[in-house]
Design goal:
By secondary structure, the protein is of the alpha+beta class. The protein is about 25% helix and about 25% strand. It is built from 7 helices and 12 strands. The strands form 3 sheets. A 6-stranded antiparallel beta sheet has the order 5-12-6-9-10-11, sandwiched between helices.
């Protein structure tokens, strides 16, 4: 039986229009197979009709849940990216609310990323099959009319400001972390593993009023997080210490093929491009 739970994130609107959530209402017991995170926007103070957004429900999956049919072993070892992509697609596309990662693998990936690329990746031995890349995630979002922007550089105030500003609009950010912890862009621990055993994809859903603390989905189990597993409350600065630049942002590979072609973060939006 699948262990599920439904929680609500309420985004309140500050006087300056920024959307934030209340840290005191963080749902701590989220060690389940599927956590359905409903993000509601408090519409008080909206000035324009286009500012009004319906509730979105993001299903957050446990990679090791053994609920993915013949793909359970793959999802357990390499499924963070498809789990994150599934979360966003389910929340943003009408008719996909009940979609599971195995549905994305079996149906959406070959349709969007091409059957030949799918065959090339999944025709390998189970140990050699790679996760979908950041570009591959973006292609699936675009297929369903969702705007996306891959920001390749994560260092500096500009990258932090882009993430904060995006979250303050009530919009999610897909991030890529590694096991390496950085300080001022310099590796200080090459095997820290706080947010990743190797590489790991997650989705930031909300930011608190302090503009420092974020709520991020996580398909993996982290001992340090206790009972807060599918949804974690962390400092944005700490999370960004484990993010890394994408050094080949023009690489169009739909599946992961090395560190140079991954990294950075994706801004998800229903608007046009936000940054040049």
């Amino acid at each position: 039986m699948i262990k599920e739970k439904h929680v609500i994130i309420e985004l309140k609107r500050a006087a300056d229009g920024r959307l934030y959530t209340d840290g005191e209402k963080f749902p701590r017991d989220t060690d389940v197979d599927v956590l359905r995170v409903q993000v509601d926007v408090d519409e008080d103070g909206c000035q324009e009709p286009e500012d009004r957004r319906v509730s979105r429900i993001y299903p957050v999956f446990r990679q090791a849940g053994k609920i993915y049919d013949e793909w359970s072993d793959y999802v357990c070892h390499h499924g963070c990216a498809v789990c994150s992509a599934t979360s966003v697609l389910a929340a943003w596309v009408n008719g996909l609310g009940d979609i599971m990662p195995q549905n994305v693998i079996n149906t959406i990936e070959p349709e969007v990323l091409t059957q030949s690329e799918w065959d090339k990746n999944y025709g390998k031995s189970p140990q050699e099959r790679m996760p979908v890349s950041m570009h591959g995630i973006g292609c699936m979002l675009e297929y369903y009319g969702i705007q996306w922007e891959h920001i390749s550089k994560v260092r500096g105030a500009s990258a932090t400001a882009k993430i904060r500003n995006h979250l303050c609009k009530g919009l999610p950010v897909i991030v890529e972390t590694s096991r390496i912890r950085y300080k001022w862009g310099i590796p200080v621990s090459i095997n820290d593993r706080k947010y990743a055993g190797s590489y790991h994809t997650m989705v930031i859903l909300a930011i608190e009023k302090d503009m420092q603390t974020v709520w991020v989905t996580d398909s993996a189990h982290r001992l340090w997080a206790g009972e807060s597993q599918r949804l974690k409350r962390v400092k944005l600065a700490d999370l960004m210490n484990y993010m890394f630049n994408c050094h080949a942002p023009d690489d169009k590979s739909p599946y992961f093929k090395g560190r140079l072609s991954t990294g950075g973060f994706i801004l998800v939006s229903n608007k046009e491009r936000m940054y040049d």
